[in-house]
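Hi V.,

Quick status before I head out on leave. The structure for the redesign project is tokenized and pasted below; the design run finished overnight.
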């Protein structure tokens, strides 16, 4: 019998670490869940399905409601910026920056390297560090105000 992994049931669970009790089960993924990122304030979570589902979901952890979906390939996950306004995701063609409020995607194709990238925003949200399977890490400064108003100007400098 094949071994089942956590997340194979397609659910995202929020746990109370002190009691070990499950507080909430969030359902909606159609394939296995491969990544979960809890926002800094704990009120939102971002989850990624496997490469066949090609969807990331933004959850309200208080209600369990799916607030928004972000389409696209994801190999190693997605993360929210410190202020929760943007989701930074790895994608097949490079790093994707999603405006959480509008659902618009602003790709950073120049961040693509060898193999699927992995991306992490810095705690202050000024930069995105992107690594690839060749071991290279690139850091991009993000002009968030330009990103919101003009997707053709995602990075500065």
């Amino acid at each position: 019998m094949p071994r089942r992994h956590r997340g194979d049931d397609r659910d995202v669970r929020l746990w109370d670490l002190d009691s070990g009790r499950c507080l909430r089960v969030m359902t909606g993924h159609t394939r296995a869940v491969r990544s979960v990122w809890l926002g800094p304030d704990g009120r939102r979570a971002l989850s990624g399905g496997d490469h066949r589902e090609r969807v990331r979901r933004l959850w309200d952890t208080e209600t369990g409601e799916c607030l928004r979906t972000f389409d696209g390939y994801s190999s190693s996950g997605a993360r929210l910026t410190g202020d929760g306004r943007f989701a930074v995701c790895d994608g097949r063609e490079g790093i994707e920056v999603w405006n959480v409020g509008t659902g618009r995607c602003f790709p950073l194709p120049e961040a693509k390297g060898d193999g699927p990238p992995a991306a992490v925003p810095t705690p202050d949200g000024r930069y995105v560090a992107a690594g690839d399977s060749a071991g290279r890490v690139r850091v991009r400064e993000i002009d968030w105000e330009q990103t919101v108003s003009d997707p053709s100007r995602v990075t500065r400098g």
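Above is the designed sequence. Helices lie at 144-149.

G. will cover questions while I'm gone.

Best,
W.
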